[in-house]
From TrEMBL:
<keyword id="KW-0472">Membrane</keyword>
<feature type="transmembrane region" description="Helical">
    <location>
        <begin position="77"/>
        <end position="99"/>
    </location>
</feature>
<protein>
    <submittedName>
        <fullName>DoxX family protein</fullName>
    </submittedName>
</protein>
<dbReference type="GO" id="GO:0005886">
    <property type="term" value="C:plasma membrane"/>
</dbReference>
<keyword id="KW-0812">Transmembrane</keyword>
<dbReference type="InterPro" id="IPR032808">
    <property type="entry name" value="DoxX"/>
</dbReference>
<comment type="similarity">
    <text>Belongs to the DoxX family.</text>
</comment>
<feature type="transmembrane region" description="Helical">
    <location>
        <begin position="50"/>
        <end position="71"/>
    </location>
</feature>
<keyword id="KW-1133">Transmembrane helix</keyword>
<feature type="transmembrane region" description="Helical">
    <location>
        <begin position="12"/>
        <end position="29"/>
    </location>
</feature>
<feature type="transmembrane region" description="Helical">
    <location>
        <begin position="111"/>
        <end position="130"/>
    </location>
</feature>
<dbReference type="Pfam" id="PF07681">
    <property type="entry name" value="DoxX"/>
</dbReference>
<dbReference type="InterPro" id="IPR051907">
    <property type="entry name" value="DoxX-like_oxidoreductase"/>
</dbReference>
<keyword id="KW-1003">Cell membrane</keyword>
Length: 133
């Protein structure tokens, strides 16, 4: 029975939609509220603030590309870079810190985004894309 559910291209489409939809809301928040917080974290880490404008690429443009299937591997690579930057800036004190109430990782959402982005980097967007890799 489970063999009838073998539809890897549908699975990749659903992964693209879910991953892109979750990440894009972070980008929309940055568009609406600005990137002052990001610039502050960069400055605190001794990095130039202008790098903060890359958040629009990583949290808004790349998710759109992922959802639509436009150069999915490249967009996933951008998202991976964004996630590693977030881990460095926001969680570098302890990237595997556990939450006391739930026992989950403090940065677990970033790790989920990384997992999805790595899957798409290695597999591509599948059959249902606008522009294949």
């Amino acid at each position: 029975m489970l063999n009838k559910l073998h539809a890897p291209n549908l699975g990749l489409l659903l992964l693209r939609i879910a991953l892109g939809a979750c990440v894009i809301f972070h980008g929309i928040a940055k568009i609406k509220g600005g990137i002052g917080g990001v610039k502050g974290m960069l400055s605190g880490a001794g990095l130039p603030e202008f790098i903060g404008y890359g958040v629009y690429l990583g949290e808004f443009i790349a998710p759109i590309m992922i959802i639509l299937g436009i150069f999915t591997r490249f967009a996933s690579l951008i998202l991976i870079g964004t996630c590693f930057t977030i881990l460095y800036l926001a969680f570098s004190d302890n990237i595997f810190e556990l939450l006391a109430k739930t026992g989950g990782l403090k940065a677990e959402i970033v790790y989920l985004y990384l997992g999805g982005a790595f899957c798409l980097l290695f597999s591509g967007g599948g059959k249902f894309v606008i522009k294949a890799d």
